[in-house]
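Issue 218. Parser rejects a valid record. Input:
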Amino acid sequence: MKRREFIGRLKAGGAAAAFVSLGGTAACGRPEKEKPEATAAPLGSRDPRVEIDLGAVGRNLDRIRKRTRVPVMGVVKANAYGHGLVETARHLEAAGAAALMTGKLDEAFRLREAGVRRPIVNFGPFGPREAEDILRRGIRQSVSTAGDLAALDAAGEKAVAEAEVDIHVDTGMNRAGVPAGEALALIEKAASLRRIRIKGVSTALTEDPEFDKEQLRTFVEVCDAAKARGIDCGLRHAASSGALFGEDGFFLDMVRPGITLYGYYPNAKTRKADSLGLEPALRLMASVTFIRDVRPGESLSYLRAVRIERPTRVATVGLGYSDGYPHLLAGKGVVLIGGRPFPVLPAVTSNHVMIDLGEDRTVGIGDEAVLIDNRRESPAAADALAEASGGSDYKFLIGLNPELPRTYLRDSRPPRV
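Output the parser choked on:
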């Protein structure tokens, strides 16, 4: 730096500023380290990865809206069922979801920090010390106790703002919520508090068809009783994915689908009927990393899990249960390579899945392997794998490691079967 420039900085900012400009720090006189530019971590060419078709998610949302004809609260809890919390929520917001539901307060906060502006309803618990942050970030909090209301009301008084709440009523799930017999009193309490604004009332159905009808009747009675006392309960919502395929009366003022948004039906019966024409949005992929011809008498994996009785060509795929590939699929799953199905051997470990290539000699190292496919009739579709293994497509999808790299397609067309 030239002497004249140094003197100019000295006059403008003092000695400390001038010294820093020479490469030092005002605090200790040591050279200031340059901050590296923030860059995305590189993806290994053969690392496992997830591909999400957001176009399919948007089309599923449209189908649900046409079926129910009420606003949709998109459920993005559990990392959006494995699809990626932030990107999926942003897409649902852009596609017109009326609100978004989280299962943890951290998820709600992350969405606000990511710039999501739609109403976010946190169904998860919170502690009194988080009440101020809930107001500051504009989160609509589900409540079920007088203590919940008191904490949010106090935070509202401090911030001179209203806390928006949904009151959750337990009508038979016995998991969370104010018992139905005590719900009216809690609703009245909420309505009396200066800094509380009721935006909705909710319940959770058990998905037992006959008992759900009793739950709905109980829930509507609570809401009607509140209305008779002049209390505006906001939007009533009870229907998650399972209730979308029941009677229209379950839709009330809003529905909150989860698994159906991502292209899956809640049970075998609705899957067979395929009344909504849902499109699965997720593909799980990895690469073939090793191929070997194994002779009779040899074995595979830990504790010699597989004993080879015939000449077998075995491929190793670089993904395992640490990535969320279910151990339940050992010996039962199917992997697609070049569009062809190959059976998974009973050898699924932390970072590897071993498959039987049979007599195939065309598969090579580096080939792409699809472990969860997004085509409805594929033998590697999540629901087909769940049926084959006795597992659950919910658990398969939610169990995918959130650290797996995810790429997103936005302007897609429905995949060919």
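Fixed in the parser; the record now loads. The domain at 54-273 is CATH 3.20.20.10 (TIM Barrel).
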